[in-house]
């Protein structure tokens, strides 16, 4: 048995698409909070002191993250996005925070966030300017990396505005090297592929060697159409992008907008379930000081977070599309499988999705244990390949469940290829 396990480990190492950026970070998808989608570039602290981009916002968010169970649930990074700096660099050419909105400066803010046991993220841009027109890092990569390290920053989101696309790769690689040279561990979040896709297919081997996660597609908005478009883009490019995900580097479909204004509760469940299936960073952009208890419970759901943070670190795939249902599957450690069934029919009521006599569902031979996590926790008990399972899924909602092999013949299971365990030949009866 030991020999069989060893062979599997060796094969899975060899089949990794590429080496990850070697900074010891993002071994699991990053969890935290990022200001952009909810707070954008609100710099009017005179009229809107509670919601403007200022040190107060991040300090309050850090306080709430500790007090309200977010940190305990795994959310760790408090991240600043665009619009934090002054329009002028200082006399030494260093970026500086806007003095009115960040009177204590970033170093003091980092100390505060660290005192809460959390980490601080900051934002800059690979080009001449940030997307909102603040100073970019082009020509200043080493100075900026050193400034962030001196301040005690733990994560850098590096945007791609105002950059010649032919120099994108070079710029992102140069900044990656500059961060490494500081000798501080700084998680590196890139947007290299997002800005390269309009011109050519990005090199995901190089991206994985350079970044800890990378945005591929448009910014998320607080709407179901936005979340849907991200899912559709991801599924239609999954054969290119999913193999590059793994411990140390992840595809980033952008922020969780759960707890805001635009998604129904079913749609919020769909975003949470599918972000876990996609092994996506879980960076919330919402107002944790004022969030509906149901959204909070969903974001802190330990079963879903366990899927997101599974140590195998494989990204899931969309495996079937039938009758406006989509089936997504993510292989988990210990031969388990997470399955999400999304009902894309936006009319009518709950619809039944029936899984029966699945020839490809080999992890249920001879038996498996099925646990539904969404829409509510339900132990569905021991099943076999001959079982019929009926799921009820609301319009634009998702049923999420895990399948655990029981009484397994370990050696046989380890010989199975991941594709063999797929339930893509599922039959649907309405
Ligand atoms: C810098 O890169 C080297 C070699 O890839 C790696 O061993 C080291 O841990 C990196 N240091 C930091 C701070 O990321
Ligand atoms: C990246 O670094 C190389 C070597 O220092 C330099 O020649 C090149 O101009 C840099 N590119 C960018 C975009 O900064
Ligand atoms: C992609 O990047 C890798 C690693 O930097 C490199 O070895 C490879 O040649 C590149 N592939 C293409 C098609 O440019
Ligand atoms: C099936 O899984 C549930 C949830 O993890 C667990 O409580 C139950 O004991 C399991 N049943 C068997 C027979 O393993």
Q: How would you explain this protein's 3D organization?
A:
By secondary structure, this protein is α/β, with parallel strands linked by helices. It folds into 2 domains: 292 residues, TIM Barrel, CATH 3.20.20; 93 residues, Golgi alpha-mannosidase II (Immunoglobulin-like, Sandwich), CATH 2.60.40. Helix content is 31%, strand content 20%. The strands form 3 sheets. The chain has an 8-stranded parallel sheet with strand order 7-6-5-4-3-2-1-8. The protein has a 6-stranded antiparallel sheet with strand order 9-10-11-16-13-14. A two-stranded antiparallel ribbon has the order 12-15. The two termini are 43 Å apart. It binds 2-acetamido-2-deoxy-beta-D-glucopyranose (4 copies). One 2-acetamido-2-deoxy-beta-D-glucopyranose (NAG) binds next to loops.
CATH class of the largest domain: Alpha Beta
- Give the distance, in angstroms, between the N- and C-terminal Cα atoms: 43 Å
The strand order across the widest sheet is 7-6-5-4-3-2-1-8
Task: Give a short account of the largest sheet.
Answer: 8 strands, parallel
What is the name of the CATH architecture of the largest domain? Alpha-Beta Barrel
CATH superfamily of the largest domain: Aldolase class I
What small molecules does this complex bind? 2-acetamido-2-deoxy-beta-D-glucopyranose
Class from helix and strand fractions? alpha/beta
Q: Using the CA coordinates, give the radius of gyration.
A: 22 Å
Keywords: Disulfide bond, Glycoprotein, Glycosidase, Hydrolase, Lipid metabolism, Lysosome, Signal
Pfam families: Melibiase_2, Melibiase_2_C
Subcellular location: Lysosome
Function: Catalyzes the hydrolysis of glycosphingolipids and participates in their degradation in the lysosome.
């Amino acid at each position: 048995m030991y020999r069989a396990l060893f062979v599997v480990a060796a094969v899975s190492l060899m089949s990794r698409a590429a080496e990850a950026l070697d900074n010891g970070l993002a071994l699991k998808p990053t969890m935290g909070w990022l200001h952009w989608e909810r707070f954008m570039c609100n710099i009017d602290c005179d009229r809107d002191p509670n919601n403007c981009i200022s040190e107060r916002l991040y300090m309050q968010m850090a306080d709430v993250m500790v007090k309200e169970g977010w940190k305990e649930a795994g959310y760790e990074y408090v991240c600043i996005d665009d619009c934090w700096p002054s329009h002028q660099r200082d006399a030494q050419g260093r970026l500086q925070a806007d003095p009115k909105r960040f009177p204590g400066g970033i170093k003091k803010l980092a100390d505060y966030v660290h005192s809460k046991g959390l980490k601080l993220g900051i934002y800059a841009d690979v080009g001449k300017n940030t997307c909102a027109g603040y100073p970019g890092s082009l020509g200043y990569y080493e100075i900026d990396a050193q400034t962030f390290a001196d301040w005690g920053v733990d994560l850098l989101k590096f945007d791609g505005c105002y950059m010649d696309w032919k120099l994108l790769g070079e710029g992102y690689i140069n900044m990656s090297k500059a961060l490494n040279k500081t000798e501080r561990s700084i998680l590196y979040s890139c947007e290299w592929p997002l800005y390269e896709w309009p011109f050519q297919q990005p090199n995901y081997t190089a991206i994985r060697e350079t970044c800890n996660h990378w945005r591929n597609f448009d910014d998320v908005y607080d709407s179901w159409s936005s979340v849907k478009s991200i899912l559709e883009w991801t599924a239609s490019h999954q054969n290119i992008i999913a193999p590059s995900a793994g411990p140390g580097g992840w595809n980033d479909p952008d922020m969780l907008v759960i707890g805001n204004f635009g998604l129904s509760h079913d749609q919020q469940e769909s975003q949470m379930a599918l972000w876990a299936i996609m092994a996506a960073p879980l960076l919330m952009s919402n107002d944790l000081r004022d969030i509906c208890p149901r959204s909070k419970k969903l974001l802190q759901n330990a079963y879903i977070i366990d899927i997101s943070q599974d140590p195998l670190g494989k990204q899931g795939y969309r495996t079937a599309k039938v009758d406006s249902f989509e089936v997504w599957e993510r292989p988990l450690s210990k031969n388990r499988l997470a399955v999400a069934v999304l009902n894309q029919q936006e009319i009518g009521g709950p619809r039944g999705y029936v899984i029966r006599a699945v020839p490809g569902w080999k992890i249920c031979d001879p038996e498996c244990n099925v646990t539904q996590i969404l829409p509510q926790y339900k132990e569905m008990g021991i099943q076999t390949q001959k079982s019929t399972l009926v799921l009820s899924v609301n319009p634009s909602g998702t049923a999420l469940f895990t399948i655990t092999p029981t009484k397994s013949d370990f050696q046989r299971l380890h010989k199975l290829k991941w594709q063999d365990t797929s339930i893509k030949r599922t039959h649907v009866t309405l």
